[in-house]
Amino acid sequence: MKLPILRNFIDNQKPLFVGQGKYSKWFPIFDAIENFIFSSKSKTANPIHVRDSIDIQRVMVIVWLSTFPVMFFGMYNIGDYGLNYLNTIGASNTGDWHHLLISIVGYENPTVFSKFWFGAVYFVPIYFVAFTVGIFWEIVFAVIRKHEINEGLFVSSVLFALTCPPDLPLWQAALGMTFGIVIGKEIFGGTGKNFLNPALTGRAFLYFAYPSQISGDRVWIAGLSDQNIVPEGYSGATPLAYAAESGTNGLEANFSWSDAFFGFIPGSVGETSVLLIAVSAIILLMTRVASYRIILGTLIGMILMTSILNIVGSDTNPMFNVPWYWHLVIGSFAFGLVFMATEPVSGSGTNAGRWIYGGVIGVTVILIRVINPAFPEGMMLAILFANLLAPVIDHLVVNSNIKKRERALAS
Q: How confident is the model over 286-311, as pLDDT tens digits?
């Protein structure tokens, strides 16, 4: 029994929000609340439609839930690095609101819970701000356009938050989410009409608008940017920074490949653990939310381009000697591959196009990482670049299929 009193109350209030009802202007908000509490009663009845148990609400919920493994581990990992830092400089040197909350569980002798709490103190506010700002803009545009509030905001907000540095100022989180939702999606008509990934659009805006605060060594270790000093002998550099400076030697001197694979490295909340990202990938593939063609196409493109550059080599650029299996586990390659590249709206929609689309991402990310070591990440820009090409790729694939059928009919 599903809360019959609440169900009856909602049914009694619904006439006020539909048709010529007194509050019909606010129907999108009423509809969002109803669908959040209860499953929709609407069913496809027309025989020309394909009946399926999956809908956009279920797709978005599956993607949202699939981020939980990397989210929870990421918060623990932030706490692991952050508490080590605080114990290095001494807790007495801290004092901002983060550390006032962290002091509840203490700094010394960190436990699994205290590490998780530390990470949550940094990550949860960013996620809360991203979601709150995102839902605000969704409501504004839904009311103006008189359409339903789409569940895609759940996914865009969590993916945006998972790609941000843990020390990101909250006002920047609000600004980035605003840009991603409004400029990256709503001005083109909303969910289903956006040709760019909203979360990546917001993240790219922050990177280019505030490069000193969104990149660099300090921002990836929670607590480093709260102080104006870095303790002697303590490094906050990420594996990508070591790779850009010293190639494979720099990576292996500071991290093991297994540490990078399991996630015990500095970075944003969502990008560190390739193992748990792979678990999420299995969930998305088994539920057919993600396309295996895009994932394999990206991997093939990355391995092929990396192998070519390894053969070419360079005496001045150490990134040329970094093998593909290191590129797989450092930076946001795995996270972007599973959660961003497979986004169905901004990616290719044809089967053949998905292979090409994935290949473009894989090749482009390596070209950006290696040829331009001043910008060692690359995955964000590679996916956005492929988003722009996706309509062209699908157009060429469709035209090619039409010509093949015409030739077959002519013969």
A: 988 899 999 999 999 999 999 999 99
